[in-house]
Amino acid sequence: MRKPFIAGNWKMNLDLSEAVKLASGLKEELAGVTDLDIGVFPSAILLPDVVDALTGSGIVVGAQNMHNEEKGAFTGEISGPMIKSAGATHVILGHSERRHVFGESDELVNLKLKAAHKFGLSPIVCVGEKLEEREADRTAAIVERQVKAAFDGISREPAEATVIAYEPVWAIGTGRTATPEQANEVHVIIRRLLARLYDDELANGFRIQYGGSVKPENATALMAQPDVDGFLVGGASLKVDSFVGIIRY
Ligand code: 13P
User: CATH top-level class for 5-247?
Assistant: First the structure.
């Protein structure tokens, strides 16, 4: 009922020729895969070339971040209309590295989510607790706070067109994956919250990805969980074999 969505967040990796090579490899390997949505999120400077390399593939392309304003004196920033003009259709917002390395607040993520909708980009909003928050039994409270704040003032239609990625901070880049049960438990918490904020129909159709050390070896067990609707993959999305291995879970 929910079409799985598997996305690769390339983070600050790959130069132009490496990115085009990876994109071309994915296009070739994944031709004919239509039972799930696939996306890649290269560095913004590589977007036009990756879009070109993937033309006709069905693989969507997005940016890893954006500014909430349309334009102006924001040196070094990238706007939604710029991302669109590069041919991309999606954007990741509030990634844990944006929140915890660059200090993005819940309020800023909310402004960015509104801007993504306004500029016609499909957003993936990331949420997730830190290790000390999990150990203090605060996972549900943290994730609920992040989702509520991100969706504050967002009406049903744009909300429905959004994807959430649950990425526990302690599982990102650490090789330490949440167990399938741990992931599903938080996805259920998010889905129930969406039902309260909107309604059951929206919540039941809403895609929630898991992210954090996803590999071909753990993809099948994670995807077997009823509320896991795909992945946001970091390290393992940088090679054709491992990303395709995850997609063929
Ligand atoms: P890893 O898959 O490298 O743990 O990264 C996850 C992530 O942050 C994807 O956005």
Answer: alpha beta
